[in-house]
Design goal:
- Chain A: Residues 1-22 form the signal peptide.
- Chain A: Keywords: Signal.
- The complex is a heterodimer.
- By secondary structure, chain A is α/β, with parallel strands linked by helices.
- Chain A has helices spanning 3-17, 49-58, 72-85, 100-105, 113-116, 128-133, 157-162, 179-192, 202-210, 230-244, 256-264, 276-284, 319-329, 332-342, 355-358, 370-378, 391-407, 412-427; strands at residues 36-43, 62-69, 92-96, 143-145, 151-156, 269-273, 292-295, 308-311.
- Helices cover 43% and strands 10% of the residues of chain A.
- By secondary structure, chain B is mostly helical.
- Chain B is 72% helix and 1% strand.
- In chain B, strand 1 (63-64) and strand 2 form a beta hairpin.
- The longest helix of chain B has 39 residues, at 22-60.
- Classes of the chains: A alpha/beta, B mainly alpha.
- Chain A binds chain B through residues 1-4, 7, 10, 14-15, 17-18, 73, 77, 80-81, 83-84, 102, 106, 109, 250-258, 260-261, 264, 266, 393, 396-397, 400-402, 404-405, 407-410, 418, 426, and chain B through 44-45, 47-49, 52, 56, 59-60, 63, 67-74, 145, 148-149, 152-156, 171, 173-174, 260-265, 267-269, 281, 284-287.
Chain lengths: 428, 326
Amino acid sequence: MRPRRWVSVLVCAAAASAAVTACGSGGASQTADGRTELTIATFNEFGYEGLFSEYEAAHPDIKITQRKTGQGGPHHQNLFTKLGAGSGLADVEAVEEGYLSQVMAKASQFNDLKEIGPKDLSTNRWLDWKTAAATTRDGKLIGYGTDIGPLAMCYRKDLFDKAGLPSDPEAVKALFATWESYFAAGEQFTARSGGVAWFDNAAQIFNAMHNQHEVGYFDKSDNLVVETNPDIRKDWDAVTSAVAKGQSAKLVAFSPEWNTGFKTGAFATKTCPSWMLGVIESQAGPENKGKWAVTDAFPDGGGNWGGSYLTVPRQGKNTTKAAELAAWLTAPEQQIKAFQAKGTFPSQVDALKSPALLEQTNPYFGDVKAGALFAAQAGKVAAAQYKGPADGQLQENVFSPALQSVEQGKNAGEAWLTAVEGAEKAAK
Amino acid sequence: MTVVLTPVDRGRAEEARPRPPRRHRLSALDTKVSPYLFVAPFFVLFAAIGLFPLLYTAYVSLFDWELGADDPAFIGVENYTTLVGDEQFWNALFNTFSIFVLSSGPQIIIAVLLAALLNANLRARTAWRMGVLLPYVASLVALTIIFGTLFGPQYGLVNEVLTAVGIGPVDWQADTFGSHLAIASMVNWRWTGYNALIVLAAMQAIPREVHEAALVDGAGALRRFFSITLPMLRPTIIFVVVTSTIGGLQIFTEPKLFDPSGGSGGGAENQYQTVVLYLYQSAFQSFDLGYASAIAWVLFLVVIVIAGLNFLLTRRLASTSSEVRR
């Protein structure tokens, strides 16, 4: 049965009776003066505004229209709804890393950019792990990488000093060498901190640990391996025992209380992707300037949190031209301009060597050479973990709440059983 | 309109009948069809945005329908049988009723008392009456965010006050009853004034003679309130109960925004996940449209059953109250 077809017939009939004409094959993609109109849908700030006019000047037959959504959530909800409806998407759609597993599960609805994109474009343009995450098992490339969020460690120098820990960016590296040394330092810290916690919440630590493993929640044949993958249980035990020892500030990420936590100094370390520096600066405020520092170390290697891709959905009209635009936008020269405009950290190998990036400093974090620091961290990211179709859901709706329940006082063993059960339900 | 007066012999054979003039036919068409055209917009709109979604939801609920899936599989009533055995659904139903009772109960009592106060001889009466309606005018989202901050487990004002008076902090997020209380307080804040105005209108419709007669008989203010005002308010109170039932069973925004993670889980362990929130989570986080549709239909039936019970209750109570009057 294919009920989808007659939905659109009925919806169109209903819409027609209300005198709306948007059904069937969609609107014309030609402007009045005969130029081809390309639409591109982004969210937050990609830093592309100045680039569009540059592209239009170089390609007189193209007109670019941007559909910009303020937040990632509504943007992706719109993306999935219109994928389901079969029409209404922009020619180029941005996809954030957190939603990538869901997009990869619907890879058949996106163009293989190796096939329709410019032939002279090599995937060596990007960091290997960035491209690998957007490549399907049968080798199709779904998206061109835009930016990334390489992880470093941010910490409160003043609180480290008070608790008798080394606070110099070089000296703290030993504390952040492995997760074991990280939790051990946390124990030392909380013993003398007078109630200040070591990290903001358990889920933030757990997710960073989890993403470092070669195999995550699913194996490469999409089988759920939550119970059989020993790494997951090991991370769980390490994080929950740290919670039991009072190392967590129990502040849900991005909640108002979490924001307050930055102001009051409720925790001493934060897993820090490049874009987190801006978040810390705005939440901790000028009164805490000089207290936060960042170092180019991350327990057990590196990691990535955030960053996006440009995709070309199959339902578009001008897929070849759209792919050409996406390829141009994600070239190192353009991404460096986007970085200068809005601070999006580039995923292109050449862009990471650009002087404009390497010379960038951050005054809030003691004039640290943030660009060079995160470029170094980007090189430490291990191979991309294979993500199953329900991966994002497992992280957001299963493991994060389960860890939160442990922070609220639930027994860690019981919470683990709840998480396993929830994972099975989400994966079916 | 003189043509209409021309007699037409209906008994004569069809072919012998002259074709009526064009204007005649048009006006006949006009009288027959145009009334339907006048009422059509409502029915077309109702069919498109009321009836069609309702029926189509029922249809979708019979499929294992993932958003964007190419070929949803027909599975009959399996979504419904899964739902009956789904602990999370029963938990959500319990939460919904719990929040409903915690909000509607106090709300109606306070609304009646508030209406009685507003019915008294007050200075600047209109200003007071407008005043109680202000929370209803405020933006629901802004209100929920402010209440969420007030009920913050670690830095919330409510907990600071509770600590100051020696009760100690309550984890409004972790505690099931605590979270229901916090959400119910948002609902009460918003709707009490609105309901008070409806009750006030009914109160003013009570004939003054009844009150005067009681006064002559020597009844005090309290006695008059309980023996005259309350019984005569019954139908209005039932109306308020029915509307707040329908609203209360569909509560969504408050618990959704109360979750600090911004998800639809309604707390780390679904402590305050309501039925509509579970529906939303199934549809737009798990993308399981078939299951979400089944939840929607079951909720629809629950609302009908409860509303039906209320209707029966209304009829009974309304007739007993009229007997009291006689």
